[in-house]
Amino acid sequence: MSTVISVEGLGIEFYRARRRRMSVREMVFHGRNSAPKETFWALKDISFDIRAGEAVGLVGGNGSGKSTLLKMIAGVLLPDEGSVTVTDGVAPLIELTGGFVGELSARDNIYLTAGLHGLRNSQIDERFDDIVDFAGPQVRAGLDTPFRHYSSGMKARLAFAVITTLDEPIILVDEVLAVGDKVFREKCYLRMESLLEQGRTLFLVSHSEGDLKRFSTRGLYLRSGRLAADGPMADVLEQYTAHLAEDSK
Amino acid sequence: MRLITRTQAVMAKRNVLWTLVIRDLRVRYSRSVLGYVWTILDPLLMSLIYFVVFVYIFKKTALGHDPYFLFLVAGLLPWQWFSGAITETSRALLQEAKLVRSTNLPREIWVARVVVAKGIEYLWSLPVLIFFALFYVIKGQTHLNGWLALLPLGIVVQFLFLIGLGLILAPVTTLVTDMQRVIKILLRMLFYITPVIYAGKLVPKPWDKLTWLNPMTGVLEMMRAGFFKHDRIPIQWGAIGVGLVVTMVTLFVGFAVFGRLERAVLKEI
Questions:
Q1: pLDDT of A177
Q2: Between these two residues, B138 and A244, which has the higher pLDDT value?
Q3: Cβ contact, residue pair B16, A22, below 8 Å
Q4: Which residues of B touch A120 (CB under 8 A)?
Q5: Whose CB among A21, A144, B116, B184 lies 3.0–4.6 Å from B177's, allowing a Cys bridge?
Q6: Which range marks the domain in which residue A157 is found?
Q7: A14 and B103: CB-CB below 8 Å?
Q8: How are beta strands A3-15 and A39-51 bridged, if at all?
Q9: Which among A110-114, A194-198, B95-99, B214-218 has the top mean pLDDT?
Q10: Nearest to residue B250, comparing CAs of B219, B207, B208?
Q11: What is the average pLDDT score of chain B?
C-alpha cells in the first residue's frame, strides 16, 4: 500500500504566553514589545508514515501535542521544522461547526460547508437527503430555521453528517465521537466503521480506550511532544496506561 | 514566484471562493430587506452632504469637474468599496478564525473573498452612477466621452491594490492588537488626502505629485474620465501611471508579507 501521510522530523514551537500579540501603542510609547518571548516546542522530532487504509489512533495525556499534530496533518498549522506530506484529500472532523453561519438556515449551511470542502452543488443535491436523514428528524423539521436556533447537539450532528459524506480518502477525527446522545453516537460508530470498510485512512485522536480499540489497529503515543511509541494499538495503550500510573504516583 | 503560485492555488479553489462570496452577500442581505438601499444610501447621503456644505455654504464652485454632484457620486461609490474592503480585510482572518483553523484552503482566499464581495457591491451600485450620469446628460450639463473605457481598468486596478493591501493588513492585524483602531484613523485621513471630494489637479504643486503615490488617485481619475469634459481639468495621466506601478509593488509586497507571517498567524488565531 502506498504512503498517504509522511511526517519527517516534525517540530513546532509556541510562545509560552498564549498571546504574543504586540500593540502599536506599546511600540510607539515604550519602543519595545513587552509580550513574553519564552518559547517551548509543542512537538519535536516526530517521524512516521501512514499507508492508505490504515486506522491509526493517537494517544497521550493532556497537552502532549495530539491536537497540534492533527492540525498539522490537516494543513491548518504549519511546522517550524521538518515536513508533513499528505498526498490525498483530507476530511477534517476538527472544530466541527466552524464553517456554519448562525444567520443562515440549516439548508443553506449544508450547501456552504460542503461547498467549502470542495463539493459541487450537484453532488450536494444527491447527498442532501442522506445528510439530513443521518442528522435526525429534529434537524429535518428545522431545515429552514436559522442555524443559531439549533441546540448544540443538533449542530454537532448536522456538522458530523456533512463532513462524513465528503469523499476524501483520509479522515481526521479529534474527539468528536462524543457528540450527541447514545443513539446518535452508535450511528456515528456505524458510519465510521463503514468508512473504514471502504478503505479510507483514519487518524483518530481520543481519550476513550474503547473508541481507540474499536477503530484503530495501529497506535501512536505522544509524550510531552515526543513520539514515545508506535506499534499495535493494544501494546501502545498498555505502555500509555503504565506511564499514566507511574506519573500519578 | 510566490505571487503566481499562490494566485494559482487560490484560482484552483475558485468555486470555494465563490461559495464564500455568496455567503457574505447572503448574510448581509438576509439581515434586512433594505440591504441594497443601505449599500447605496451611504455614498448618496455623503455626496449630498458634501454638495450642500461646499456649494451652498462655502459657495465653492470649482472643486472638481462639473456637475459637482456627479463628480462626488463617481468618487464616493468606489471609495466605499475601498474603505469597506480595508476595514474588513484587516479582520478577515480574525473574524473567520474558526474556519481558518478547520479548513485547509490557500489562506489568501480569506482576503480575496472580502475584496470580491465588496467589489460586487460596488458593481451593484453602478446603476446609481449611470442614473445620475444620464440625468445630467439629459439636462445638457455634461456629456459622456470615449475615456469611459478607462472605468473597467480602474476597477481592475482598485481590485489588485485592495488585494495587495489586504494581504499586508490581515496578518498584521492578527499579530498587533490595536491595529484595527490605527487603520480606522488612517482610513479617515486617507479619505481627505485622496482626491475624492476635490480634483487632484487642484492640489498645489509639488504636493500633487505626492497624491499620485496613492493608487486610488489614479483609480479615481480613470473612473471619472468618461463622464466629464476635460477642458478645465485634464486627465492626470501621471497619477494613473504611478498608481499602476505602486499597485503592482503593493501586490508583490502583499504576497511576500502574507507568506512570511502565515506561520505565526496560524499559531495565534
A1: 62
A2: B138
A3: no
A4: 15
A5: A21
A6: 53-247
A7: no
A8: antiparallel
A9: B214-218
A10: B219
A11: 91
Is residue A37 assigned to a domain? no
In this structure, how many other beta carbons lie within 10 angstroms of the beta carbon of residue B152?
A: 11
* Distance in angstroms (rounded) separating the CA atoms of residues B39 and B115: 15
Residues whose CB is less than 8 angstroms from the CB of residue B266 and which lie 6 or more positions away in sequence, other chains included: A76, A77, A78, B100, B101, B107
Q: What is the pTM of this model?
A: 0.89
pLDDT at B221: 94
Count of domains observed in chain A: 1
Contact A6, A85 (CB under 8 A): yes
C-alpha A232/C-alpha B30 separation (Å) is: 52
Asked whether residue A211 is domain-assigned, the answer is: yes
The strand order across the sheet containing A81-86 reads A39-51, A3-15, A81-86
Q: Determine contact, residues B221/B235, Cβ cutoff 8 Å.
A: yes
Strand ranges (E), B144-251: none
What whole-number distance in Å separates Cα of residue B20 and Cα of residue B107?
13
Q: Does residue A23 form part of some domain?
A: no
User: Does any domain span residue A17?
Assistant: no
Task: Judge: B102–A75 Cβ closer than 8 Å, yes or no.
Answer: no
DSSP B56: I
User: Which residues is A49 bridged to in the sheet?
Assistant: A6
Say whether residue B60 is in contact with chain A using an 8 A CB cutoff. no
Closest-CA residue of A relative to B175 is: A21
| CA-CA-CA-CA dihedral for B209, B212, B214, B218, to nearest 10 | 160
Q: Which residues contact A220 (CB under 8 A, 6 or more apart)?
A: A48, A56, A57, A58, A59, A227, A229, A230, A236
pLDDT digits (tens, 9 = 90+) for B253-268: 999 999 999 998 998 8
Instruction: Point out the residue among B99, B178, B267 whose CB comes nearest to the CB of A23.
Output: B178
CATH code at position A80: 3.40.50.300
Q: What are A11-22's pLDDT values in tens digits?
A: 998 887 655 567
Q: How far apart are CA B181 and CA A56, in angstroms?
A: 47
